[in-house]
Amino acid sequence: MFLKKIQFKLTMAFLIVFVMSTTVFHLLSFYSLYTSLRNDDHAALRSRLLSYWAQFQIGGMQMLHEELDLESLLGGERPALVRVSERGGRTVLLLHPAAWAAFPLDQLSGFQRYGLEQVRRLNAPGLEFGLEVAAINLGERYVLQVGLSTEGRDRLLRAFVRNFVFVVVSISGVGFFLGLVLTARYLRPLGKLNDVIAEILSTGEVSTRIERSETGDEFDTLIESFNRMLANIDGLLAGMRSTLDTVAHDLRTPVTRMRGVAEIALRGEPDIDRYREALSDCLEESESVVKLLDAIMELSEAESGLHSPSREPVELLALLGDVVDLYAFAAEERAIRIEGPVLEHHRSTGAWSGAPPTEFYVVGDSARLRQMIANLLDNAVKYSPPSGTVRVSLQAHDGEQAEQSESKNYVTIKVEDGGTGIPDEELPYIWQRLYRGREAVGRPGLGIGLSLVKTVVEAHSGQLEVGRSDLGGALFQVQLPRL
What we know:
The chain contains ten helices and twelve strands. The chain is an alpha+beta fold and 483 residues long.
């Protein structure tokens, strides 16, 4: 309904404010005009009263009669009522225009208040103006009363009121029309937003975007935020669909194997050893399924930010040394040598002597950082040839080098291996979940490790780069902000 639209409500709100403010302004103007005109009329009335009083003081009633006769002959003065009466109330002289006979002049006898500031108003039925009368004593015997009409003043005030009503009605009509047009124009982005939301609710498609008007106002900001929200939702849905597809594809193989093993075991003759072997194979396949699901859930939690990384000081030298010690045994089985200042320091002393250098402290989640380093080191050991070398290094920019480096507030973790490296055509895809390159064929893994590494680094406001190592294989560099 149109009356419930915000366009109508805003227009009416501004129109009401305009009418109220205009009414207050005109009321103040009307009062000011009325006061000014009334004071002018009272000043003219007092002036006429004092003029007649002066004539009486000079020549008595005779001089006053002559003055009044002269005014009636010339006709230039403003018409006035003149009444001279005795103190007892008997009228001695009464002059007024014939049109004023409708006024209740008999009430003048009861006018007992005398003085220049005492003004009494008489009204007559059928007349749109009044008669204002003031009185003054003429000696001890007579009373002089003079009255002037308010016709001119009342006519001007009525014209003022008519003009006010006309102006308010006219401007209100024009303002209402222009208000509807302008609010419709300014609220157009809101209408587009509602249309897009209705389309999304009806179709479920979130790829639609709203064009900005480039006005830089709040609606532009709202549209930009809404488009970003749709892009995030679209990305999350795409990632969800991709994850579901890949999980369904990767789960099909172990589930099919388990079913095949179970069917073969059931078709043959009863044999405890064969059943045990089938159950063992099923258990092995189920473990691979659980590992896949756990890895995907862990990556999803990290990407979604459901569990934000904690913020506490982390000493990277000790953390890196622990991870290197953990993978040292797996590397020794393939005669792979892990070299790095952290491992050598651990082997030579067994513990840190004194406080670790402060330049190797970062702020972050030690568990997530440990997981990130472990994935990098696991890949390096996995893709290194037997009897190869894996190099782990930690570098903080300081001294003269820091003054020339844009990374002087970062600490860099480097993990290098002596494998075949990553082909250039595969570099854009290595961060995708469940992606495995040519070198990964026949090697254990789920294709999730590097996705988790990238997520952890971004959660710590770090940077991640991959290149070619001097050892011949891949070089991964992680830069994290220093404490």
